[in-house]
Amino acid sequence: MLFFIRIRVIFERSSQWRYSNTGYALLALIIEKVSGMRYNDFMNWYFFFF
User: Is residue 42 situated within a structural domain?
Assistant: First the structure.
């Protein structure tokens, strides 16, 4: 979680944009914490049924 706190701001809010997967990485950590499953296993079980 400290990784997300240490991310530096590149430009002022609403002045530019840049694509980032940071939100998805954080979501994966939350899913693992709440479900007690690895993210890959969770996605396969609940979304892809493998």
Answer: yes
> Degrees (nearest 5) of the Cα angle 2, 31, 11?
45
pLDDT tens, 2-14? 666 677 777 787 7
Q: How far is CA 24 from CA 8, 15, 27, 34, 37, in A?
A: 18, 23, 5, 15, 16
Residue 27 is assigned to a structural domain of this protein: yes
Q: Is the pTM of this model over 0.85?
A: no
Could you give the number of structural domains in the chain?
1
12 found inside a domain:
no
What pLDDT, in 10s, does the model give residues 13-28?
778 777 778 889 899 9
Largest Cα–Cα separation, the chain: 43
